[in-house]
Amino acid sequence: MRIHIAKGRLLDPASGLDATGDLWIAEGRILAVRTPPPGFTPDLVIDASERLVCPGFIDLCARFREPGFRHKATIASESGAAAGAGITTVCCPPDTNPVIDSPAVVELIHQRAEQSRKVRLLPIGALTHGLAGERLAEMYSLVQSGCVGVSNGSRPIRNTEVLRRAFEYAESHGIRVFFCPENADLRNDGVMHEGAVSTRLGLPAIPEAAETVALAEAILLIELTGARVHFGRISSARSLALIAEAKRSGLPVTADTGICHLHLTDADVNDYNANCHLIPPLRDARDREALRRAVAEGVLDAVCSDHQPHDADAKMAPFGETESGASTLETLFPLLLDLVDQGALDLRTAIARLTIRPAEILGLPAGRLAAGAPADVAIIDLRREWTLTEVTIRSAGKNSPFLGRRLKGWIDHTLLEGRTVHTLV
Amino acid sequence: MLNPGGNIQLDGEGRLRHFLTTDGLDRRILIEILDHAESFAVVGDRPVKKVPLLRGKTIVNLFFEASTRTRTTFEIAAKRLSADVQSLSVNLSSTTKGESLRDTLQTMEAMHCDMFVIRHSGSGAAHFIARLVAPHVSIINGGDGRNAHPTQALLDMFTIRQHKPDFAALRVAIVGDITHSRVARSDIYALNTLGVREIRVVGPKTLIPAGIESLGVKVYTEMESGLRGVDVIIMLRLQRERMRSALLPSEQEYFRCYGLTEERLRLAREDVMVMHPGPINRGIEIDSRVADGERSVILQQVSNGIAIRMAVMALIAGAGRGRA
After folding, report:
1. Contact A412, A22 (CB under 8 A)
2. Residue B320's pLDDT is what?
3. For A272, which of B127, B210, B211 is closest by C-beta distance?
4. How is domain A56-362 classified at the CATH fold level?
């Protein structure tokens, strides 16, 4: 399929391009940007006037629930939702059932993804066998079979010696570790951020130190081992200071936060709203401001959805007994755009956090509008507004904290390697 | 200002529909409950201990957590109002908690019950259920996790008012495990709404939750200074598992630091009231001589619990008639 995208506002943070122009696509790749290739006859012309044309988004963490949790969502259902949200690459953490700790599970995920072909699904393999935090997983084999890195998901590793060896072993094979810092003992039985709100609601609380202590430990082990580590789902201001310091001292670390943490605080848990039951927990307004600043300034390299679709029953219980996580794929870009509208960051930076920076972290050629790059493209109507409801959410998980919210940033088209995987003009 | 349950508890005309928490309930409602309880308090002294207010109504006590005294006082209160009452202790071990809670409730609702008294170990459980039930059904919170125990708070207020009617003059100390106490939280909201002069919470930092000052209390980690000059002391029960979870070294040391002894009692005002939601741990949080002494109103609290629960049920049933 040869596609000509005409008269769009081309925004490519990788090259600094931000200008009206055309894009030509052939054989799954971008053929030319702004300068027409000689003798090009398109099979399809997409009129992108008044539209933003940018690289398809790369989501560093979304759970598609397969294998093991098909009652919540499937690779098919969530691939469609991702495509509809302009997301063309998704990393899925290993905490499926069975865990992604053997090449067979990677193979299964690839097969399912191949059936829907709506998104590039990159599994992250297990760091420890069964994520139990005791024995190393077969990291090399996992990466050979297609994993983009290794992680213990959101399961903390209590044994520091195991963590050290896991970092060392990963580094021996040049494998990137994706790490969510959480100290299991300090987390204890907590279900929300420790502060005035948890005290008022009488909910078991998670201190900020549950994150910072684990993060500081990991940073010291990175100094020791030289492991390349991406810190995921950072939630607190104090953690950002630690990450900024680690970066200044030249350690090979990068970091992201989830989109919810850029918008919500512990005050949103008020009235026991189970859709605001997130791990790491929503922290206070000061943390949220610091996270926004860190996204703007680059202490946080990426923003991910941290998408966790749930069945309705998972949230039908008293707050502490509900499962944590929110369905967020489809609010990833609109809510980042909202921060642009609020003046918290500029559009180019926002797009960079969803495209070129995560592409660099993953070592992918995607995430840019450059000749030769995979033709992953999102075409967006920045002005069109709609209301998020359980009906407009395409994901099987309707558990969004943002139901009823007006959103902007409508995805008209999504192309994955030059194929239209979503169109809704 | 946070206000969990503030709206869901009232019907369209601002009358009590559910009773979930004292947080966010205004003074008018609290006083109304106390005044109603006043009139019900005498029912227990009559030879025929019944009034026909709730005849034909069905009340179910749904207890997902062990309790004898709270459940018993709710049962007696319902019977004195002539309601049909059924108590159910639901064993949680066999099934997922959330499903069990919701399914049990819906089953009961299908039997056309009018009012549920819920006790559950999850904070917010009563709010969760109140949002699910049909419009003609009311929920009374009999204690949910660490969140709220509003009838206990109201019976505490009632007992205080019997002895010291001018709330504005009072200094109140709440002593013990504040973190895990729904009684402490519900008392703090009620005392603040009724306008007491000062609320102190007294205990080691391991038992005082973060940001408690934002609820309008002063924190004391030393017992002596915490008790000095107070009019009311509310002692909290210390659960044994606090010793296992690294919050306290031993019962002996706790008693040594925070146990209410006759000697410490002398630091408070001469006419101080000693309260305890029960059941008491003698020799752990309170010396027997104080528990049984002349400043103790612990048994009055128990009898007042019946009048308060009658008042709450009657008020809610009244609001129910308005809706029908």
Report:
1. no
2. 52
3. B127
4. TIM Barrel (3.20.20)
Task: State the DSSP H helix or E strand holding residue A161, giving kind and residue range, or none if neither.
Answer: helix A160-172
B159 a catalytic residue: no
Q: Are residues B294 and B158 in the same domain?
A: yes
Span B185-199, pLDDT tens digits: 999 999 999 999 999
Beta strands in A208-328 (DSSP E): 229-231, 253-258, 302-304
A319/B212 CB distance under 8 A:
no
The ipTM of this complex is 0.90
In chain B, the number of structural domains is 2
Which of B 166-225 lie inside 8 A of A, CB atoms?
182, 185, 209-212, 214-215
Measure CB to CB from residue A321 to each of B3, B122, B209 and give the nearest one.
B122
Identify whether residues B191 and B161 lie together within a single domain: yes
- For residue B210, give the nearest of A205, A313, A321 by CB distance: A205
Q: Which residues contact A100 (CB under 8 A, 6 or more apart)?
A: A92, A94, A106, A109, A123, A124, A125, A126, A142, A147
pLDDT computed for residue B98 by the predictor? 54
Q: Is B122 on the interface with A (CB under 8 A)?
A: yes
| B5 Cβ under 8 Å from any chain A Cβ | yes
B120 contact residues in A (CB cutoff 8 A) = 318
**Pick from B194, B206, B202: nearest CA to B219:** B202
Q: Are residues B126 and B245 in the same domain?
A: no
Q: Mean pLDDT across chain A, nearest whole number?
A: 97
The list of chain B residues with pLDDT below 70 reads 1-6, 91-100, 319-324
B218 class by beta-carbon count within 10 Å (0-12 exposed, 13-18 middle, 19+ buried): middle
Give the range of the structural domain holding residue B164, as residue numbers without chain letter.
Answer: 150-298
Closest CA of chain A from B225, distance in Å: 24
- CATH number listed for the domain at residues A3-53+373-384+405-423: 2.30.40.10
Sorted by where each begins, the domain ranges of chain A are 3-53+373-384+405-423, 56-362
Residue with tokens 């004391």: B220
- Which residue in B17, B22, B57, B70 is the catalytic one? B70
Judged by CB atoms closer than 8 Å, whether chains meet at B123 and A201 is answered as: yes
Q: Which residues of chain A have pLDDT under 50?
A: none
